[in-house]
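Why do we care about 3D structure at all? Because function follows from shape, and shape follows, mostly, from sequence. That is the central idea of this module. The next example makes it concrete: a single protein chain, its amino acid sequence, and then its structure expressed as tokens.
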Amino acid sequence: MRSSTIARHLVIASLVIGILAYVLTIALYVGLVVFATHATHVLGHTLDESMKSMTSYGKSI
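And the structure:
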């Protein structure tokens, strides 16, 4: 193999690896945002239910 062919393959491989790293970074960021949003929603719902049960418990006494 000539050195120019090897250099071309190295450039292509580095571009592919860079693009994959970029896509993976975006996917991880989106996953983190979705997870945090869902966790916040669940936590808020749980807190609402807890407050409702505490309020109804106080009224029943």
